[in-house]
DNA sequence: CGGATTTTGTTTCGAACCGGCACAAAGTAA
DNA sequence: TTACTTTGTGCCGGTTCGAAACAAAATCCG
């Protein structure tokens, strides 16, 4: 008679543990109640109550069939509810806009890509993202809880203005957080959306770092240094014990203008040999003595040059030239931050894969403390790191307090 | 009839709030129960219970006479009990050993200074510190709760071994934490000491940063960058939201070998123009075209050179030369960490005071984000920062859980 | 000077949250 | 089948904190 009963009333246990418990399930670390008991260091009774509460909130499901294993009573698998709520995750990048829906567990729907609108002023671009997200939200039966956006520019905190949006000539100080909130408020996200829909924005490198930390190559690290390279230049981010360190104004880890070759190429900042100008596609082509074909995206051609390093002598030499400078920059930052893992993305990931041993050797050579300073350098694992990070940003308040999820 | 009653039994409130409350009183932020109520965001009832518990533990006193002020019933001042427990704080530096007793509130007894023993092997130096501390502990009627030590070398975590103890030729990897614990265990700290006396060690720059954050020039900062220069070279430390960031192995912020002048002076690390070799006393004298007098401590002469900058043209030029390089290094680190305050100590403090505007201008010029990157640069306030930090280290467990203080 | 007002401190009660324990459930091992 | 191991749940109680009423001690103001 107890089977298929109505969802039980909220238990009198596990209120403050809901957040940590959901975060563990969200990152795939605790597939069973028993694992939750150990990870949270609570009694089985408490873990059971927490599980029941999360199930009642419609966030997780408990597998009806036991998952066998060793001796003793088998545990039931806990999983993110595939029909649970979603957030809208968006990204603005040099090529256009990307939008997707994201449930818990780091699971993204296949992203929708839109070309850059003809007018790239802030309001119209943010409106395009908000409307594309609203369309996705209307198309699903799942509740929509938030809309979050990744930007290719530094974002100040706590006011949420964008700085130096080079690609789109946005004025520095554009209040992107406020503008996006307005546009999301105007767009119709359908009857299943929370009203008003909470919004959040952050820098794409920071968000990609957060996503890698929770669902990708950064799992299990304590201090994760993330470095990426793309159209905009070099972006860095630091995750400390699960929290992004964005500095007092959101401007930490802007490592693009670290000097790695005093006699190097000139940079827009006025100096020579910045990490930006020494490890971007132009630097790679210059080192190879080649000129990129006009018309095709520069970043794609640079990646092909990396892939050619195993067969083409000139490509190999160019890759090594750039890698030596990247290694200097990474060692400098690692000596300051002493991370226990470094994750590379973008063009830096292609450089790493072209000559992993050389990059690791250069960094180790410049690390101050020998063995203690030897830090693992690995590649990013997520295909859409910034989008996945935007999803994390949107989910943030609900992961901290699952009871704030509307019924 | 209630006056001078026995200390009341422990109340049924404020157990988990004891630590935060004591920390607030410890840092002088909440001199009254009413301020505690606001700072902890609890009810007056809870703040009152917390206060009573801390008083019962013998850690604080409540002033019997009201402290007047505005309207309404006056509040009673809360203060650290001057007869409360102490910890032994020690420091090993190039000139010798320093030891003192420290109560809560950042209050140090006048330190006792000892010359370096003839034999500078680890065991004998640690024994000398432990015995000097034991003598102090025996001489007081206050209970002694811990012994903590500041070392001039990088200290790895969590194992507590010292690296590169240049001045004393200690082998890299010396297990200082274990050795000090043994020596403290052997020394007699008197009948009022906890047995066995807990011990802790850490790097002096990190500890000085922590002390400045809690009791000195870093009060109120969120992200504090601390940089000091002394006999050993440059030491850095970072406090994030009240916690030291020592990196995954305790080796963060070792900024001495940041390159600030590619054509600069050679450094022991093999490169040229490291922050160490460009801002140490030798660099200052070289820039002035002077040779220090033999016999007198180099650091003292360098400080005198800084003080002479206002009157002596050659000293002024030398100070500005060094300051320009120090500014480059500070800007580089600040661009990575985005702190909201920079505190300078040691010779760097003398440089700052000799030409504060120039140093601030150099850093601002090299900061990436204009106004947003302009960070206050101030001098350290504590006379014995590392010793005060060692006291903080020793008090740490009790600040986190005041109930662990033995009755 | 004396009551009104304001602010602080205390007492009492109850709610929320979690551990301990006993028991039940569901598998494996022999 | 029996013993054992491990997992899940119901019940009790303890700890901790908030709400509210009350009490206390000052200033304000007529």
UniProtKB/TrEMBL annotation, chains A, B:
Identify the domain of life: Bacteria
- Listed Pfam families: ROK
UniProt-listed InterPro entries: ATPase_NBD (IPR043129), ROK (IPR000600), WH-like_DNA-bd_sf (IPR036388), WH_DNA-bd_sf (IPR036390)
Q: Where is the signal peptide?
A: none
The family database entries (PANTHER family) matched by this protein are listed as: BIFUNCTIONAL UDP-N-ACETYLGLUCOSAMINE 2-EPIMERASE_N-ACETYLMANNOSAMINE KINASE, ROK (REPRESSOR, ORF, KINASE) FAMILY
Which family does the record assign? Answer: Belongs to the ROK (NagC/XylR) family.
* UniProt protein name: ROK family protein
């Amino acid at each position: 008679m107890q089977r298929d009963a109505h969802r039980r009333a909220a238990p009198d246990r596990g209120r403050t543990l809901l957040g940590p418990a959901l975060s563990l399930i969200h990152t795939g670390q605790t597939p069973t109640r028993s694992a939750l008991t150990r990870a949270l260091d609570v009694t089985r009774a408490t873990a059971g109550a927490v599980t029941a509460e999360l199930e009642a909130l419609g966030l997780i499901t408990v597998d009806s069939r036991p998952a066998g294993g060793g001796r003793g009573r088998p545990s039931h698998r806990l999983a993110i509810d595939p029909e649970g709520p979603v957030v809208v995750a968006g990204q603005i990048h040099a090529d256009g806009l990307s939008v997707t829906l994201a449930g818990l567990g780091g699971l993204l729907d296949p992203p929708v890509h839109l070309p850059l609108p003809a007018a790239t002023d802030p309001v119209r671009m943010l409106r395009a993202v908000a409307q594309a997200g609203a369309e996705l939200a209307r198309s699903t039966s799942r509740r929509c809880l938030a809309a979050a956006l990744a930007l290719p520019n530094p974002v100040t905190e706590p006011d949420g203005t964008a700085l130096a949006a080079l690609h789109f000539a946005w004025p520095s100080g554009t209040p992107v957080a406020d503008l996006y909130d307005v546009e999301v408020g105007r767009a119709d996200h359908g009857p299943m959306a929370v009203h008003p829909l909470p919004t959040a924005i952050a820098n794409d490198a920071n968000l990609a770092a957060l996503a890698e930390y929770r669902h990708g190559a950064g799992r299990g690290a304590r201090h994760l240094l993330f470095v990426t390279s793309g159209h905009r230049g070099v972006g860095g981010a630091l995750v400390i014990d699960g929290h992004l360190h964005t500095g007092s104004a959101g401007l930490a880890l802007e490592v693009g203008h670290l000097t790695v070759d005093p006699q190097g190429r000139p940079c827009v900042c006025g100096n020579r040999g910045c990490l930006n100008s020494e490890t971007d596609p132009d630097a790679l082509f210059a080192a190879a003595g080649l000129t990129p074909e006009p018309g095709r995206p520069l970043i794609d051609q640079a990646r092909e040059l990396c892939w050619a390093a195993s067969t083409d002598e000139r490509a190999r030499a160019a890759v090594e030239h750039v890698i030596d400078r990247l290694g200097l920059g990474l060692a400098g930052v690692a000596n300051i931050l002493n991370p226990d893992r470094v994750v590379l993305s973008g063009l830096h990931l292609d450089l790493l894969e072209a000559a992993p041993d050389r990059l690791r050797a250069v960094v180790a050579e410049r690390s101050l403390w020998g063995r203690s300073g030897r830090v693992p350098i690995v590649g990013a694992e997520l295909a859409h790191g910034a989008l996945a990070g935007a999803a994390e940003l949107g989910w943030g308040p609900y992961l901290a307090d699952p009871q704030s999820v509307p019924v």
